[in-house]
Each structure stands twice: as C-alpha cells, then as structure tokens.
Amino acid sequence: MSELKRTKIEHILKNHSQLGIGKTLNIRGWVRTKRGNKNVVFIAVNDGSIIHSIQVVADLADFDEELMKLVTTGSCISVTGTLVESPGSGQAVEIHAKEIEVYGTADTETYPLQKKGHTLEFLREIAHLRPRTNTFGAVFRIRHHVAFAIHKYFNDRGFYYLHTPIITGSDAEGAGAMFHVTTLDLNNIPKTEEGHVNFGEDFFGKSTNLTVSGQLEGELGAMALSEIYTFGPTFRAENSNTPRHLAEFWMIEPEMAFYDITDNMDLAEDFVKYIIRYVLDHCFDDLEFLQKMYDNELIPRLNFVIENKFEKLAYTEAIEILTASGQKFEFPVSWGIDLQAEHERYLVEKHFKKPVILTDYPKDIKAFYMKQNDDGKTVRAMDVLFPRIGEIIGGSQREESYEKLHSRIAELGIPEKDMWWYLETRKFGTAPHSGFGLGFERMILFLTGMANIRDVIPFPRTPQNAEF
Ligand code: ATP
Ligand code: MN
C-alpha cells in the first residue's frame, strides 16, 4: 500500500488549483479504460466519488511490463504520481504516474463491463457490477443526496424521525397485498382443530407480515410529538410488473397533528420542490450526464416543476376534464373509478402541463382512515401527480372522529381486534391531523429521468426476481 494517504478523485478535480500542480498524490479506483502506444498509456480511473474519471499517464519505460498487463478495464489500482496540467482536451489535470499497484485484476475475457454501451436490461442481470457504470454511479449518488435532503428538510422544520416497525402484526394497513413473516416449518404447518394454520405456534404467537406503510404507527407518533416522519422500506406483494412498482421500496411518510388538507398539500408541494432544488444544487454533474444519455428534457423539467405552482382540483372536476377530453383511454373514465397512470398523465402532461394535486376522491376507492366529507361520498384524500410518473404522493387528512372511524371500519369488515390500538388515538385526545406518503423510488425516477423503477434502486425486488 502506498505510504501516501489517498485523495478522492472528486477532491482533485474540484480543487486542483488549491492542491497545486506538481503535488504528489495517491489515488485508488477502478480502471474504466486503458489506451496508448508503445511508449505511454492513458488509464481512466474512477473511484465513484464523482462521475468523471481522472486520467493517469504512465511512461512504459518506468514500469514493469508484466505489471502493466494486469492493468485492464475493471481492475482496481492504486496510483501515486504528480498532478500535472493536462495537454489533452476533456480534463484540466491528470496524474503522471510514478508508482502503480494492482489490488485486483479483472480478466479481459470474462469481465462483463469490458465494453461501454450495455443496455439497461442487460445491466439489471448484473446488478452486482452495475454500480461501476457511469449511469448507476450517477443514480446512486443522487439517491444518497435525496435521502440526506429529506432528513435535512424535516430536521430543519422540527419534525422527528420515527422508526415504525418493519414486521407488523396488523394485516389491515389497507395499502396492498402483504408478505407473510413466519418461522413455521412450511413442510409441517401446525393446524388448529378447525384446520387453519395455528399461528399461536409461530414466532410472535400470531400472524405477522412485512409492513406496507408506516402510517398507522406514524399517526401514533404525531399524536404525541406533533410532527413526525418515517423513512423506511415497505413491501407490497402486488404482482404488477410495471415500470413504476417494486415489491420492496422506500417510503417517506410525514404525519402532522393540527394540519388540515390544505396544510398537507402545501407541505407536500414545498417538500418535493425542496428536494428538486437540492439535487440541482448538489448533483449537477450527474444530472447533466443523465440528461445527455437518457432524457434531454431532464433539467428543464426539474426547473419547470420548481417554478410553477401545482394545480389543485377535486377528483370530480378531473373526471369531467377526462370525460370531455375526447381522448381514447385503455381504461374508460367514469365517476368512481380509480384513476390509472394514463389518466393521471393526461391531466399532468396534456391538460394542465404541470404537477397536479387531486383531492376529494370517492370514499370507496380510498383507505378507511381518510376524513369523510359532508357529502357522504368523498374523502379528504390528496394525490400528487407528476409528469412521466403519475402518482408520486398519496395522502389525506385523517378521520379524527372515533364514531365515524369506528363505523367505517365496521362497514368494511376490518376486524376491530386488529385496530383497537389505532382507534384509541381517537378515543384519547384525538386531534385533526394529516399526512402523506412519498414513494422514494418514484421521486428518484423523476429526478434522474430513468424510465424504469428497477434502475433507481441498487437491488430491485420484483416478481420472480430476488437474485442479488
Ligand atoms: P399506485 O396506485 O401507483 O400503485 P398506491 O396508491 O398503491 O400507488 P400509496 O399506497 O398511496 O400507493 O403509497 C404512497 C406512495 O408510495 C405512492 O404515491 C407511490 O409514490 C409509492 N408507491 C406505492 N406503491 C409502490 C410500489 N409498488 N413501488 C414503488 N413505489 C410505490
Ligand atoms: Mn395512492
């Protein structure tokens, strides 16, 4: 190992004037390309700290021939050398190598990322190596910055990060099909006298699942700490193979006491605009790369969303617009339907041409906990709809009346034994409150211009796919 402390490539590329030409530095990273002639080789080294690689120039006369053969695309090396101005175009500085050490070779015949230009589909099959591409480096750096920005946003506003359980004993969260969690021997399942699975013998002494949402527990926190948020993994066993659904995804769920639906909408709009601004301020190199490679409207679209006020309208008005549109939809439109992505995108992309917040949905297509409107037909729901994505946020003002919530639960046949603790928040010191859930990966899709949600999470979980 080099005696010298390693300097990250990002630091060198951004601070080369302060570091000073002629300075001796050590860099470590993975070889992206190597080219050259009989006398000199140019090695592009990337350490993931920034989208750009640094160019290492090595005079072959200074190095052992056998060692240089090991420096191939995909190998991992440590280089100590002098920082020099680069005569070539494309970079301001480069490293003139004095010492090279090979940490790990990568066989040129079998290393799958030998050539550039692989399809995203192919890269999904090598999810263990795709972080080494420019594309996934950019996406995962952006993902990190967004996660950080989310914590910063809430922390700066006095919201507390509440950890809600991943294993849940309630199967009535109502947001989607669930994955069972069990330690029972599946080849020898204990049965009750009536022939049902005897969960009494299971690890928790009852049937348990992976959570589909932290909201219900989040509400318990908001009824004490006023403003909380969750940020954790959620799991939905929905067998939908779409470019917008994962079986395991991350969700951010703020929950606020004393917020009505208007406060809730204002927070959602401010929050997503903050995230977009943060990414424009902190990830510009990565955005530029993604724009060039995948989506030439990316940065203008991000700016457009921050600059425009979101359009707010009721579900019923949206149905009228869709019906009057003359547009042929795969799923026909009528009052009472659950809007499909095609409808949401029509409203956002064709009609209003900006993000839309829809409110006051029919109660039958929304969850039991949403506040009932006086019309007896609709609830105080709000969905935030984005260009290219459709629904990015789903939220509502919550029903704070014990009687109304209790009768809705009974009406829907949700077992009260699963819900007693939730109902108690309405029994003891209930308060008007609201919250929403932002799908983290849908936000990253929007921010990166990627088209498929499998390409914005390091290890996607989808039906029939959990290899890595
Ligand atoms: P959709 O109708 O798009 O399936 P939903 O109405 O079931 O979503 P909610 O229960 O409201 O979703 O969840 C809140 C947010 O979580 C959604 O607005 C979306 O951003 C995100 N989300 C929901 N399901 C998934 C999923 N399977 N994969 C990734 N993100 C999801
Ligand atoms: Mn929703």
Task: Describe the overall structure.
It is elongated, with a radius of gyration of 27 Å. The model has no long low-confidence stretch (mean pLDDT 96). With 468 residues, it is α+β, with helices and mostly antiparallel strands. Helix content is 33%, strand content 24%. The protein has 13 helices and 16 strands. Strand 2 and strand 3 form a beta hairpin. The longest helix has 23 residues. Helix 4 crosses helix 13 and helix 6 packs antiparallel against helix 8. The protein has an eight-stranded mixed β-sheet, sandwiched between helices. Strands 1-2-3-5-4 form a five-stranded mixed barrel. Bound molecules: adenosine-5'-triphosphate and manganese (II) ion. Adenosine-5'-triphosphate binds next to strand 11, strand 15, strand 16 and helix 13.
Give a quick precis of the structure.
This protein is 33% helix and 24% strand. The protein has 468 residues and is α+β, with helices and mostly antiparallel strands.
Give the helices and strands, then pairings:
Blueprint: H1 9-19, E1 24-36, E2 40-46, E3 54-59, H2 65-70, E4 76-85, E5 93-104, H3 120-125, H4 134-156, E6 160-161, E7 167-168, E8 180-181, E9 208-210, H5 215-225, E10 227-235, E11 248-257, H6 261-282, H7 284-294, H8 298-307, E12 311-314, H9 315-324, H10 341-352, E13 356-362, E14 378-386, E15 390-397, H11 402-411, H12 416-427, E16 433-439, H13 440-448
Parallel strand pairs: 3-5, 6-10, 12-13
Antiparallel strand pairs: 1-2, 1-4, 2-3, 4-5, 7-9, 8-9, 10-11, 11-16, 13-14, 14-15, 15-16
The protein binds adenosine-5'-triphosphate and manganese (II) ion.
